[in-house]
Structures are given as structure tokens and as C-alpha cells.
Request: fold
Amino acid sequence: MELHAQIANKIVHAMKKIINQDLNFMNSTGHIIASTDSKRIGHFHEAALRCIQEQKTLIIDNDQLYQGSKAGINMPVFFNHQVIGVIGITGQPQQVEIYGHVIKQMTEILILEEWQHHHLLHQRSLNRSMIDSILFHDNHSMDSIFTFPKTACLHIASLNLDHSHWNTMDINERILNEIDQLQKRNESFWASILDRHLICLFKDYKVEEINSRLNQLLDLLKPFTSDKLIFGVSEEFTIEQTALNYFKQSQYAFEWGQFDSLQNQPIIHYSQMNLGLLIVNLNEATKLQFKTNILHQIPPEDLVFYQQLVSLYGQYNGSLIQLANHFSMHKNTVQYRINRLYQYTGYNLRHYDDYCVLKLAFMMENHPIIHTKRP
Reply:
């Protein structure tokens, strides 16, 4: 491994702030690639080369002993048990020798941290490339990153990060840091942020395992927002199928979870959407016509109440007592509001067939137009 000059420069300047002495960093050929004395950068440092060859600290008493070298202390820097360069402190040996061991250790720690950060960014890039390749069926690119058996069972989960407070470098970095930690503990699970979508890919996971991983992610994300967090999950598919269609499934499930008042769950599976499958796949003109025909005479200020009434009517299995308790009103008042709904719509909530019509109409009223975007 050869240390980049930019990193070496950052190290020597950080060290100078601590000991107030000039420092140099020499590469494996003995050339100075970073120095707090800019005039020395690029010069050959004979003592550094000897330090590398012997793999031990070299103390220089005066400026004439080695070509391009000055009095001071020079120490080999190790990474993965190999010498990758030399860190040198310029000055009288009796003055700078006391800093030698600490500066050497700190340099090696900083190099390790830089390598870990680079490795982390590389892994994130691989994850992003793999998910992107799978979504857009770029098998050639994907084969160069990961190999998936044709029979592997895959699922996609997605969460939209559309709100402005999500889309900052700081928030995205913190989210990715949390994802990094989760991925270290879970095999066959990958996640990345692509164009305001947090996309997760699962290989050979059962539904219960997917829910467990997504709940872990939700717990990590909750401190970043007060928004309602929902993951939509696709049906199972294989690598030979068009993954983008399954991403769309996850988006439909996400949108449905946001706007179906009966769904109070943070994870919505496309296969379990029930009536939602019908509504998200109806064209918008049909939905608009249906809900308008049923609901158009209800005063706008009463729409929210009647929407809640119809939703809760099903949830409480038609119990007027439970509805009265929920709305903090008398049972007779609830019946009065049901009668008013009949007058507005011509549909009686107490009749099963009419209840189904009203339920669908309010579900369409509550459901937005979905424009699923490519990530």
C-alpha cells in the first residue's frame, strides 16, 4: 500500500500542531511526499530509505550524515505488518526523540482510520452499483460485483426520503453509517440511498426475517425524523426477472401504507395489500369518477369526519357503542351522523353492500395519485 500524498500531508500538519516541530513523510522509495517545510517536498531522503530497508528507527545527529536528510528522528510506519513509509521529526535528537514513539503510533492510527474510511466508501459504492444493476437488469455490471444464483429468492424494500430535511449530506451520512453497522451484522442484506429512495435488497430471506431487519432499520431511523416511517416490500422474485417492476411494487406498498388509514403498520408487503392492490392499479380517471359519484354532496368540512367514521365502523365491526366512545358522543348522535351520510350519498353504512361502496369511495378519496419514479 502506498499512502497518498494528500493523506500524508494531513498527518504531518496535524502532528505539528501537537509538538510544534517540522515533520516529513517519506514514501517507500525514500522521497518526501509531505512536509511542514514545503521546500523539502519531492526531495530524496537517504535516511528514510535506510530506515525502510532496516525496518527500524534511525536517529540522525547532524545534517551531513545522509543525502537530503536533516538532524532528527525517523521511524518506519507499518500497515498490515508492512512498512509503507517513514515519519520523520526534524530537530536535535535530544529534543525530538521523546516524541518519537507517540508520533509513530498516532501516524499509524491515522493511516488505519483513513484506510477504514476508504474501504467503507468503496463498500457503499459496491452496494449502490449492485442495487442499481439489479434494478435496471444490467447483468454484465452486476456479475463483476456479485454473483447471484439464478434460483436465489430476492425481495426489494423501499422507503422514500422526499422530505427536504432528509436530503442533507449530514443526515444521509448518518443514515448510511447506521446502515453500515447493520450490514456488518447481517449477511445477504444490502442497502443504499438512490435518488431519495432508501432501497434494501434481501437474498433468501423469509418474510419474518425481512420484517425483523426492517424493524431494526426503522429503529435506527426514528431519531432522525418525526415523520411516519413506512417500508414497502415487493413480492419475491429471481435475478432473471425484471427487478424494476418489483421496485414499483415496493413503492406502491409504501404509498398505500402512508394513506390507508386502516393500516397502522410500518412495514407493508405488496402481497398483503388486499383492497390496496385494486386501488393502486386503477387508473386515476376511474378513481376520480367513482369517488366523485359517491361523495360529491358531502360538505367539505365534514369529509374528514365521515372518512374516520367509515374506517372505524369496519374496525369496530359496526358497534355504535365503540364508535360513540371513540368520538366522545352519544350513541344516538352516531346514528344521526350515519343517517346524514345516507342523505348525502344514498348509501346506508349499516347495510353491508353500501358499507363496501362507501369504504372504497373514501379509500380513493384518501389515496393520492402515485407517480412511481425510477431511482
